[in-house]
Amino acid sequence: MELALFDLDHTLIATDSSAQWWHYMSEIGWLKKESALHHQHAQMMAEYDHGVLDMHDYLKLTLAPLVGREYQQVSQTADAFVQQHLFKQLYPMAQQLIREHQQAGRRVVIVSASEDFLVRPWQQLLAIDAAIGIEIETQQGIITGQARTPLSYREGKVAVINRWLAEQGISPGDCYAYSDSHNDIAMLEFASHPVATNPNQQLKARALVSDWPIMHF
């Protein structure tokens, strides 16, 4: 079975889901606007851009306002947020590319380092096979502030892809992969057809060395 794997943020959409969600939590009162956590969040986003972010530390920060909340409530709020604020950031060319892969008979999967409640809505919105984000741990439906491993971040993306393939009973054939970030080099190397998509400088440099196609939406 042929696959088409897509990163989400800055690959399919012209923004960062987690960063926008962080600001949205302030707007709806889940995070105090004067909180010192905002400075820490900005620092961690810069670390992500440089490829040195500790994702466990980042999740500890971003999930803190959600600890003790019902996952279902957060998921419903996030679903509305994605539809109202993020869907309009979808690149039209990206949506067309997804359709072309589907018409060619390929399974289409989003694999993102954003939280699962921000990623899952895209499966229905784009009518694709799966949309995988970092799984948030719950106990009796309540968010604990922890995440389940493997994290769909850097090399962990390949682990969750392989897990999904095993769950589906699929043996992968040709695989296309699209990402904007050097943080996804492992996923791009996993694919037989890697495509640097809206690449940052680090990924662009790697694409040129490896002779990977470069695409811009």
Would you mind describing this structure in some detail?
The mean pLDDT is 93. The protein has helices spanning 17-27, 37-49, 55-63, 71-86, 92-103, 116-119, 121-126, 156-168, 185-190, 201-210; strands at 3-6, 107-115, 130-134, 136-139, 142-147, 175-179, 193-197, 214-215. Helices cover 46% and strands 18% of the residues. The protein has 217 residues and is α/β, with parallel strands linked by helices. Strands 3-2-1-6-7-8 form a six-stranded parallel β-sheet. Strands 4-5 form a two-stranded antiparallel ribbon. It comes from Vibrio metschnikovii. InterPro entries: HAD-like_SerB, HAD-like_sf, HAD_hydro_SerB1, HAD_sf.
In short:
The protein has helices spanning 17-27, 37-49, 55-63, 71-86, 92-103, 116-119, 121-126, 156-168, 185-190, 201-210; strands at residues 3-6, 107-115, 130-134, 136-139, 142-147, 175-179, 193-197, 214-215.
Main attributes of the structure:
6-stranded parallel beta sheet, 8 strands, 217 residues, globular, alpha/beta, two-stranded antiparallel ribbon, 46% helix, 10 helices
